[in-house]
Amino acid sequence: MKRLEEQTETRNINAAYLKSQIKDIPGILPYELNPGVIRAAFHLFPFRYKKDEFKGLTKGEFLKALQSEGIPCMGGYTPLNKMPYLENVLKTKNFKLMYPASMLDYKKYMERNQCPANDQLCEEAVWFFHSMLLAGKSDMDDIAMAIEKIHKNAEKIKGKILFQGIVIYTLRCQMRVQRFDRFVQLRHLSHTLRAAIGLLQHFLQQNE
User: Fold this and answer.
1) At a CB cut-off of 8 Å and minimum separation 6, what does 8 contact?
2) Please, are residues 48 and 122 in contact by the beta-carbon 8 Å criterion?
3) Which helix (H) or strand (E) holds 146?
4) What is the pTM assigned to this prediction?
């Protein structure tokens, strides 16, 4: 408790500064505090990520790119109202004792609990950990510069991911050729391998 006041103040200052540094990057929508809120706990620094402004990089790809820049991050929650365990819970003895059968129909429950705005938020949310907000101002600058770097180089990052995918696909084809020894299968897989290698060569030529 002795550190609470000081750390809360530090997190608020750094959160406000980091927000000011990233709010103008296309595709980045930082948190908004409700009117009247003068201080927040900032156990997380949340923002929304719009992939269309980053050449279609998925949120997962964006997170990996951030981590490659040395910035810890995570993608937040998945929609909890769609978790598969809910169907099992509705079938439990205790729930059957507490609720009428009409309320325990899983399909009807899902129909009643569609939350498209929540789904979108879960799809777009990116979190920074509260401990990051206890660092210095220069560290906030590093975070902002990393996001800006990814935005400016999104096309190259997308190409690199495509290249890696082609390489993995080619290696898998090679492994399949080695694994199967029937003539027909071998001939088919050899054609597939040659096509993959040709695609890889074309990609390399386009990116020289």
Assistant:
1) 39, 41, 42
2) no
3) helix 137-152
4) 0.75
What's the CA gap between 100 and 98, in Å, rounded?
7
Q: Which residues contact 109 (CB under 8 A, 6 or more apart)?
A: 86, 90, 103
- Opening angle at CA 144, ends 143 and 147, nearest 5: 90
CB 49 within 8 A of CB 124: yes
Determine contact, residues 151/53, Cβ cutoff 8 Å. yes
Q: How far apart are CA 196 and CA 173, in angstroms?
A: 8
Question: In one letter, which amino acid is 94?
Answer: N
For the segment 96-121, what is each residue's pLDDT rounded down to a tens digit?
999 998 889 999 989 999 999 999 99
**CB of 47 within 8 A of CB of 29?**
yes
Q: Is 39 exposed, middle or buried (0-12, 13-18, 19+ CB in 10 A)?
A: exposed
CA distances from 190 to 166, 171, 187, 200 (A): 16, 12, 5, 15
- The two counts, helices (H) then strands (E), for the chain are 9, 3
Beta-ladder partners of 28: 49
**Structural tokens at position 32:** 């908004």
The DSSP secondary-structure symbol of 135 reads S
